[in-house]
C-alpha cells in the first residue's frame, strides 16, 4: 500500500488499487471505538446517456435508474442486507447523488463481518420482475412525498431553471412515469456497466488495523470473478438548444404561508483538473461566506431590515461535469429579497476587494472547521473526492485553504459569476392560503 502522510496534521491515508481495479483507502484511528466504511461507484442520476466502447449506439436509461438500483441492491433472494447489518450490530444506509452512489455502515463491533456484508451485497445483484414492480410503488410514494415538500420543490425548481432540458433537470429519484419504465434488464445492464470494481472505491476509517483490514478485503475479492471492465463513454444527453441556456425566473403558487425564494448561479467556466478543482471549490465556498455568511456586513444589514431571516441558507455544488451555487430563504419581501441579493452577487468583486482583514479571519475559520471535522469519521470518509479531484481527502483541504489569497477569490468570482448564469425560482403563497 502507498502511505500518504500529512505531517502537520499527524494523519496518514493508506491507499492501494486491487487487481480487479477496486480502489481502497484506509485511515486508522486507534483512539476511536467506531469504524465507518463506505463504498461508492462513479454513477449517479445524471448518467442517463452513454455509449459502450464496441458500439456507437447511444444508450438512454430512464431518469431515476441510479437511485432505483441503489434501493434494489439491498434485497436478495433470501435476505435483506439491512437485516444482516443489524444482526452484526451495524447501522447501514445508502444515498445517490447526481454523479455517484454510495453504500455505508458504521459499527463498534464485528468489523470483519460487516465489511464483508458491505462488499458482498453491493457485488451480488439480484433483481426479479416481482421485486422490481414492488419497488416502483415504494419509490412512487417517495417521489409524491417530496412533491409536497416546499423546500425540495424550491431547490428542484431552481436546478431545473439552471439546467433546462438536461438530466440535471430531473429529480434524482426520477418521475413516477420514468420509474415505471425501468426494467429488470435495465438494472442488470447498468449494474454490469457501472458497478465493476474498477469504477468503485472503498474507504474505511476508525478503529482498524491496516494490514488486517486489507487482508480481509483481498480475501473477499479473491473469491469473486468479475467480467472485464466496461468503460462507457458518458454523454450528458442534453438538449443542445438549451445547452448554454438558463431559465432566468419562474414562480409557482404553492401551499406556503410566506414566499420562498431561491437564487442560483450556474458556472459556465471550466472546472480546473485535479486538486486545483478542489481549491476552486473551496474558493467559491469562502467567497460566498465573505459575501453572505452570517457574520458579513451585508447579511447583517439584510437581516436587520427584515429582508432575510434565520431560514436563509446557501450551498456550493461542484460535481463531475457541472457546478453551481444557490441561495434560498423565506421572506415577506420577495421582490426586495431578489433585487438586493442579485445586485450584491453581481457586484461581488467590488464588495470583496477591500475585505483583506475579513478574508484572513474567514480563512482561519474555514481551516478550523476542517480541523474539527477530522474528529468525525463520517466527515473523513464522505469528503473523499475520488477521481473528481485526484483522490483528494479532507486532509488535503487545509493546505489548499492555506494557499488561497484574496486575489484568487476575486479571480474566481470574475470567472464564475455572470448575469446570464443566474436564475430565480419562487414559491408564492396560494391566494386561498
TrEMBL record:
Entries under Pfam families matching the protein: Peptidase_M16, Peptidase_M16_C
Transmembrane segments: none
Residue span, Peptidase M16 N-terminal domain: 63-175
MF GO annotations: metal ion binding
SUPFAM superfamilies, per the entry: LuxS/MPP-like metallohydrolase
Residues of the Peptidase M16 C-terminal domain: 182-332
InterPro entries to which the protein is assigned, alphabetical: Metalloenz_LuxS/M16, MPP/UQCRC_Complex, Pept_M16_N, Peptidase_M16_C
Ranges in coiled-coil conformation: none
Name of this chain's protein: Peptidase
Organism field: Liquorilactobacillus satsumensis DSM 16230 = JCM 12392
Amino acid at each position: 500500500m502507498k502511505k500518504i502522510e500529512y505531517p502537520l496534521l499527524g494523519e496518514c491515508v493508506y491507499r492501494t488499487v486491487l487487481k480487479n481495479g477496486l480502489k481502497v483507502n484506509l485511515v486508522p484511528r486507534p483512539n476511536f471505538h467506531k469504524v465507518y466504511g463506505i463504498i461508492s461507484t462513479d454513477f449517479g442520476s445524471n448518467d442517463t446517456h452513454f455509449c459502450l466502447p464496441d458500439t456507437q449506439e447511444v444508450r438512454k436509461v430512464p431518469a431515476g435508474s441510479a437511485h432505483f438500483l441503489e434501493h434494489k441492491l439491498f434485497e436478495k433472494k433470501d435476505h435483506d442486507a439491512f437485516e444482516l447489518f443489524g444482526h452484526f450490530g451495524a447501522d447501514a444506509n445508502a444515498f445517490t447523488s447526481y454523479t455517484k452512489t454510495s453504500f455505508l455502515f458504521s459499527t463498534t463491533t464485528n468489523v470483519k463481518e460487516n465489511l464483508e456484508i458491505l462488499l458482498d451485497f453491493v457485488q451480488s445483484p439480484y433483481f426479479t420482475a416481482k421485486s422490481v414492480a414492488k419497488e416502483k410503488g415504494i419509490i412512487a410514494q417517495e417521489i409524491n412525498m417530496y412533491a409536497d415538500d416546499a423546500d425540495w420543490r424550491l431547490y428542484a425548481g431552481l436546478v431545473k431553471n439552471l439546467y433546462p432540458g438536461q438530466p440535471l433537470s430531473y429529480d434524482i429519484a426520477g418521475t413516477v412515469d420514468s420509474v415505471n419504465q425501468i426494467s429488470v434488464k435495465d438494472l442488470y445492464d447498468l449494474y454490469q456497466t457501472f458497478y465493476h470494481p474498477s469504477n468503485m472505491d472503498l474507504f474505511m476509517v476508525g478503529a482498524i488495523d491496516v494490514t488486517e483490514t486489507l487482508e480481509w478485503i483481498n480475501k473477499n475479492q479473491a473469491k469473486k470473478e468479475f467480467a472485464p471492465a466496461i468503460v462507457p463513454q458518458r454523454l450528458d444527453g442534453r438538449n443542445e438548444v438549451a445547452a448554454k441556456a438558463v431559465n432566468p425566473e419562474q414562480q409557482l403558487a404553492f401551499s406556503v404561508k410566506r414566499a420562498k425564494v431561491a437564487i442560483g448561479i450556474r458556472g459556465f467556466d471550466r472546472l480546473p483538473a485535479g486538486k486545483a478543482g478542489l481549491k476552486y471549490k473551496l474558493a467559491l465556498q469562502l467567497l460566498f461566506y465573505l459575501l453572505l455568511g452570517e457574520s458579513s456586513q451585508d447579511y447583517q444589514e439584510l437581516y436587520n431590515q427584515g429582508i432575510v431571516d434565520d431560514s436563509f441558507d446557501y450551498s456550493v455544488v461542484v460535481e463531475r461535469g457541472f457546478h453551481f451555487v444557490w441561495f434560498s430563504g423565506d421572506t415577506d419581501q420577495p421582490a426586495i429579497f431578489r433585487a438586493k441579493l442579485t445586485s450584491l452577487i453581481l457586484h461581488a468583486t467590488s464588495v470583496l476587494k477591500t475585505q483583506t482583514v475579513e478574508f484572513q479571519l474567514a480563512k482561519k475559520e474555514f481551516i478550523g472547521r476542517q480541523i474539527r471535522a477530522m474528529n468525525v469519521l463520517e466527515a473523513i470518509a464522505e469528503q473523499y473526492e475520488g477521481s473528481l479531484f485526484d483522490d483528494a481527502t479532507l486532509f488535503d483541504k487545509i493546505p489548499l485553504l492555506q494557499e488561497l489569497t484574496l486575489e484568487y477569490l476575486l479571480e474566481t468570482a470574475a470567472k464564475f459569476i455572470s448575469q446570464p448564469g443566474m436564475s430565480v425560482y419562487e414559491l408564492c403563497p396560494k391566494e386561498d392560503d
